[in-house]
């Protein structure tokens, strides 16, 4: 369920000549039974609405006076979103014979052609007021107050994002309102300009159109949400067509060899999420995203991330979170995630957020082989991006939810084959390795062959996260001092422990690994530091250095590049 709320205009959208039909009201009740929210957004004053529509308490929130008043029927609590109209302004309009004249808590309303007098008095008194038209109605409100701002206030109270809201209306004052929602709909009787603003136009008029929309939402809301506001651009095909992903779709797998650019691609996507206003949460086992822009980081190399803090931050739709798991031992991370995942799934079911869930090193957090019933996966994980080197090592249950595979690197065909074998699917034929700055994009659900698409690099520079390697737990990428006969098995799970063990290990063991080039290999392949590897390789090849001198040289190289910044 992606759409969590319906926001509807009242006059000539929900109601005809001020009245809501029994069939339309039943559609609203059916919508509420699905667990979704209803929001009424109207230009009417609240007492007037209560008079013509006694059943208004079916709505969770009512935005009245064209955005100036927020009302909660369940508690009968009113919240003014704009100041009261200047008394001198109202008196001037009355003295000039403006009739009819309606004065609410903030709104002042009349009918055309009185807008000429209204505008004249606004100018004469130097007021910061705006005129908003609603067919024949003339509404006057403080500058910046409209249905869109009122909807935003209602959604803030409901802890919902506009992306998960569908809005429907018919008149001039509905333009901003429809654009502010994740999907905008116009009823068939709407003004032509409103139909142009909307993403869709119903075949039915007024309440029939609303009932029609409710039926479509309850049947398959994801299929309905085809709007540019919902799409995130991934790349461009060879013919110049955009390739998009959407949070209303299924899971996405990003896979490829180590160091091929998976986290760089994920970084670019987070920038696109921010541009579109989508909330995201990154599960970061190795601290790769702790310097990401527009993100609050929970946890570090010394402190495990707090589930309570994560959920507290995610309660605000504008917050994006990176869950840094460096403070957890490698073997403890899957169990930690097992506790966090149900909490995130419950939050998404209630609020639709975070819109995107990014799980890095998915083969560690969601392994294919689990001991006992450590955790059960949700039946669906929409808009979840799995990042891994080994698709075949990720939980098969989770891989089954993947609709799109993005394969990187010269072995992209093997990545796709590995995924298909894991889910018992037929691998696509004729897959060519993508060229530089390209990825293979396979829309598995559509049954189309993979296509090479070009992707842009992220705007922010990809920085090395030195604390991860200096103080974290590299798990399977740790270095092992074993010696020539394999008599030892001393594990160095990070660079600082490597230096400690190196300082105390016997000379033959140290020299065995130095002559084999094991130190430079580890720095290059596991620590992914080519400059350090090159420096270490030169030390390894320097036969004039004795064990003490070579230890000191490698130790100095490591400390120079890591301990200061870490």
Automatic annotation (TrEMBL):
Region described as Disordered: 446-469
Domain AAA+ ATPase: 248-412
Segments forming a coiled coil: none
One cellular component term from this protein's GO annotations in UniProt: cytosol
InterPro entries (alphabetical): AAA+_ATPase (IPR003593), AAA_22 (IPR049945), HAD-like_sf (IPR036412), HAD-SF_hydro_IIB (IPR006379), HAD_sf (IPR023214), P-loop_NTPase (IPR027417)
Any Pfam family the entry gives: Hydrolase_3
Single GO MF annotation: ATP hydrolysis activity
Gene3D superfamilies from the UniProt entry: 3.90.1070.10, HAD superfamily/HAD-like, P-loop containing nucleotide triphosphate hydrolases
Protein name: AAA+ ATPase domain-containing protein
């Amino acid at each position: 369920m992606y759409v969590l709320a319906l926001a509807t205009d009242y006059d000539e959208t929900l109601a005809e000549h001020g009245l809501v039909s029994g069939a339309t009201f039943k559609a609203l009740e059916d919508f509420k039974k699905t667990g979704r929210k209803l929001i009424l957004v109207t230009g009417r004053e609240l007492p007037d609405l209560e008079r013509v529509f006694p059943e208004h308490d079916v709505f969770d929130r009512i935005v009245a006076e064209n955005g100036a008043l927020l009302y909660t029927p369940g508690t009968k609590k009113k919240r003014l979103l704009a100041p009261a109209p200047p008394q001198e302004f109202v008196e001037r309009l009355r003295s000039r014979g403006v009739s009819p004249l309606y004065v609410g808590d903030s709104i002042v309303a009349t009918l055309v052609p009185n807008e000429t007098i209204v505008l004249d008095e606004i100018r004469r008194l130097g007021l910061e007021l705006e005129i908003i038209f609603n067919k024949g109605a003339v509404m006057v409100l403080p500058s910046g107050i409209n249905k869109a701002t009122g909807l935003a206030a209602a959604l803030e109270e409901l802890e919902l994002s506009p992306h998960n809201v569908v809005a429907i209306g018919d008149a001039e004052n509905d333009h901003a309102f429809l654009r502010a929602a994740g999907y905008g709909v116009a009823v068939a009787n709407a003004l032509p300009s409103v139909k142009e603003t909307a993403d869709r136009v119903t075949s039915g008029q007024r309440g029939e159109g609303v009932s029609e929309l409710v039926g479509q939402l309850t049947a398959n809301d994801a299929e309905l949400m085809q709007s540019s506001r919902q799409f995130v651009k991934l790349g461009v095909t060879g013919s110049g067509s955009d390739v998009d992903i959407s949070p209303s779709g299924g899971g996405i797998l990003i896979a490829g060899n180590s160091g091929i650019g998976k986290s760089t691609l994920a970084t670019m996507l987070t920038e696109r999420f921010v541009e579109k206003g989508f909330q995201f949460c990154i599960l970061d086992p190795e601290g790769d995203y702790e310097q990401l822009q527009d993100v609050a980081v929970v946890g570090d190399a010394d402190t495990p991330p707090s589930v309570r803090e994560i959920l507290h931050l995610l309660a605000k739709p504008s917050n994006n979170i990176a869950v840094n798991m460096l403070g957890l031992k490698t073997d403890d991370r899957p169990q930690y995630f097992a506790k966090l995942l149900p909490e995130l799934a419950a939050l998404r079911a209630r609020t639709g957020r975070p819109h995107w869930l990014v799980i890095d090193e998915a083969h560690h957090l969601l392994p294919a082989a689990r001991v006992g019933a450590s955790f059960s996966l949700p039946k669906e994980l929409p808009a979840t991006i799995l990042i891994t080197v080994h698709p075949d090592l990720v939980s098969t249950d989770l891989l089954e939810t993947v609709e799109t595979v993005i394969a990187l690197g010269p072995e992209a065909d093997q990545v796709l084959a590995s995924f298909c074998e894991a889910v018992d699917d037929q691998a696509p034929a004729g897959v060519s390795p993508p060229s530089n700055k390209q990825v293979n994009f396979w829309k598995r659900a559509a049954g189309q062959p993979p296509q090479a698409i070009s992707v842009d690099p992220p705007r922010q520079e990809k920085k090395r996260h030195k604390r991860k390697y200096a103080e974290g737990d590299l798990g399977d990428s740790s270095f092992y001092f074993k010696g020539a006969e394999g008599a030892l098995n001393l594990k160095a799970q990070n660079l600082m422990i490597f230096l400690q063990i190196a300082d105390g290990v016997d000379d033959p063991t140290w020299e065995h690994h130095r002559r084999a080039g094991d130190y430079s290999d580890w720095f290059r392949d596991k620590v992914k530091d080519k400059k350090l590897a090159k420096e270490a390789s030169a030390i390894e090849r320097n036969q004039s250095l004795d064990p003490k001198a070579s230890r000191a040289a490698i130790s100095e190289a490591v400390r120079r590049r890591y301990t200061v910044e870490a």
